[in-house]
């Protein structure tokens, strides 16, 4: 019998990770590509361009979120996962891992490589505990941004504010609906959205998110 290096509980299998922590680590790895995509709307509350179809008093867009930028950057989620895959392949005397393609493609490839090696990692790798802990922490940080525990206080996330200023810059601050309120108000630009405007609001939110995603994909 051994002790699991992640939960510190006795493990009858004699490996470095108990079956429960191995399963949890596999789940977390599988969740990372989707979590990476979900972080995109939180990167910046402002996106460029406008068709002149909306108007509101917007003074300036919010700055880029450094936390989200770090997670989505080369040294963020993808960098952590690629570093661990490189360490696993080195420990197993395999060919070095060579990242190719977009960040999204690299992340999927690195996650796939780690999943392929999980049986060996959980049973035979002394660094399994540190690896599993870092993957767990990485997921927790991402989830704390896209799905905060204090949702009741912060309100239900609706999407990015579609109001534009005179210069054609979309506000993009996250709109939230708070329980008991009948009007959605942007905490950044002050634009308000009564219930009658909500169907159109959702349409413009979806339009702006698709446009921003296309811009990021073409730039990557």
Series of secondary-structure elements, N-terminal to C-terminal: EEHHHHHHEEEEH
> Taking strands numbered 1, 2, ... along the chain, how are they ordered across the largest sheet?
1-2
The main pleated sheet reads as: 2 strands, antiparallel
Average pLDDT number: 79
Percent of residues in β-strands: 5-15%
Task: Please provide a written account of the structure.
50% of the residues lie in helices and 8% in strands. It has two domains: 126 residues, no CATH class; 69 residues, no CATH class. The radius of gyration is 21 Å and the shape is elongated. About 8% of the residues have low confidence. A hairpin with a 6-residue loop joins strand 5 and strand 6. The strands form three sheets. It has a two-stranded antiparallel ribbon. Strands 3-4 form a two-stranded antiparallel ribbon. With 220 residues, the protein is mainly alpha-helical. The longest helix is centred in the middle third of the chain and has 22 residues.
Note the topology.
Layout: E1 2-3, E2 10-11, H1 19-38, H2 66-72, H3 77-91, H4 103-124, H5 128-146, H6 151-154, E3 156-160, E4 174-177, E5 184-185, E6 192-193, H7 198-219
Antiparallel strand pairs: 1-2, 3-4, 5-6
Helix pairs in contact: 1-4, 1-5, 3-4, 3-5
Entry keywords:
mainly alpha, two-stranded antiparallel sheet, 6 strands
Summed up, what is this model?
The chain is mostly helical.
């Amino acid at each position: 019998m051994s002790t699991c290096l992640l939960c510190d509980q006795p493990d009858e299998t004699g490996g470095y990770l108990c079956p429960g922590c191995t399963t949890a680590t596999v789940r977390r790895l599988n969740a990372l590509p989707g979590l990476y995509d979900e972080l995109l709307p939180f990167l910046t509350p402002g996106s460029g361009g406008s068709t002149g179809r909306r108007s509101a008093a917007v003074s300036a867009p919010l700055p880029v979120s450094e936390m989200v930028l770090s997670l989505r950057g080369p040294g963020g989620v993808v960098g952590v996962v690629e570093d661990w895959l490189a360490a696993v392949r080195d420990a197993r005397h395999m060919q070095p891992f060579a990242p190719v393609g977009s960040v999204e493609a690299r992340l999927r490839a690195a996650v796939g490589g780690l999943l392929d090696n999980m049986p060996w990692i959980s049973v035979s790798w002394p660094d399994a505990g540190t690896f599993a802990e870092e993957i767990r922490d990485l997921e927790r940080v991402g989830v704390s941004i896209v799905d905060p525990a204090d949702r009741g206080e912060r309100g239900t996330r609706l999407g990015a504010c579609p109001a534009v200023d005179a210069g054609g810059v979309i506000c993009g601050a996250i709109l939230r609906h708070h329980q008991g309120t009948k009007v959605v108000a942007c905490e950044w630009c002050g634009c308000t959205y009564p219930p009658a405007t909500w169907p159109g609001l959702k349409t413009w939110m979806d339009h702006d998110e698709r446009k921003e995603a296309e811009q990021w994909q073409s730039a990557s």
